[in-house]
Amino acid sequence: MEDLQDALEDAQYFNAMHKRGPRPTAAIEYPTDEQLKVWKEEHLRGILTLSFICSDNLGFYLFLKYCEAVGELPSALFIEATAAYKKLPAQMDDASRLEAYETMVKKFINPLRNPTAAANKNANASTGADASQALVAVASDGADG
Fold first, then answer.
1. 70 and 110 in contact (C-beta within 8 Å)?
2. In whole angstroms, what is the distance from residue 120 CA to residue 138 CA?
3. Which region, left, alpha or beta, applies to residue 128 given φ > 0 means left and ψ of -120 to 50 means alpha?
4. How far is CA 58 from CA 53, 105, 132, in A?
5. How many CB atoms lie under 10 A from the CB of residue 129?
6. Which of 3, 37, 61, 124 has the smallest count of CB within 10 Å of its CB?
7. How many Å from the N-terminal Cα to the C-terminal Cα in the chain?
């Protein structure tokens, strides 16, 4: 009986060593605190900037949610509208791009000169209107006409 068990173990060992697939690897070497500190200084220097965080879709979404959580909804909507403006089609004519730009300026940067924007600002905040959708709608109207 021991001979059979030895033969089975030998066969399993042979198969494990000659199969093309994952094999046992060397043990993981964990860095010391000093090595970890040096690595962080070399690799993470200047990486955690706002532009780096917002370059990824998830980071951008989480930053917008943070702005909403701390009560900076207008800032979050402005950032979202700016991102939508950057994604406008390249083949769009300059007049449509200028119109979309002026819409952003009237809505976010200088709402006092545009009384309808100031009045609609509260309505948009209460209804949850999406600034990027409004910007794309204005841009597409300019592209069609």
1. no
2. 16
3. left
4. 8, 27, 17
5. 13
6. 3
7. 89
CA 22 – CA 144 distance, rounded (Å): 57
Per-residue burial over 48-85, b if 16 or more Cβ lie within 10 Å, else e, is: eeeeeebeeeeeeeebbeebeeeeeebebbbbbbeebb
d(CA 92, CA 142): 9
Q: pLDDT per residue over 2-52, tens digit each? A: 888 888 888 888 777 776 666 666 777 888 999 999 888 877 776 777 777
Structure tokens at 113: 């000169």
In whole angstroms, give the CA distance from residue 87 to residue 97. 11
Could you identify the residue written with the tokens 């046992």? Answer: 24
Summarize pLDDT for 70-86 with one digit per residue, the tens.
Answer: 988 888 888 888 888 88
d(CA 40, CA 57): 24
CA dist., res. 35 & res. 14, Å (int): 39
